[in-house]
Design goal:
Layout: H1 4-17, H2 38-52, H3 58-63, H4 67-72
Helix pairs in contact: 1-2
Length: about 80
């Protein structure tokens, strides 16, 4: 069973990029996901803030460029 934080971020990124969730995994990032470019990253960050009620500062936006890194910003996800 996958970590609920990881699964929640995968679902969010898949919806934002308009790709199937099974195309993404915890190691998906801007470096290895063709549709995840800088513009889409901003859309992901905005969706992340809206979905989880978390404000991302510039450091988080520039460093959280993977599923795993975004999930690490979540203290907990309610299932």
């Amino acid at each position: 069973m996958q970590d609920p934080k990881i699964q929640a971020v995968i679902a969010l990124v898949a919806q934002t990029l308009k790709v199937p969730e099974h195309d993404l995994n915890p190691d998906s990032s801007m470096l290895n996901t063709p549709l995840w470019d800088s513009v889409e990253h901003m859309d992901i960050c905005l969706a992340f803030e809206q979905r989880f009620g978390a404000a991302l500062d510039m450091q988080a936006i520039t460093t959280a460029t993977s599923i795993r890194a975004l999930a690490a910003l979540l203290p907990k996800v309610d299932a």
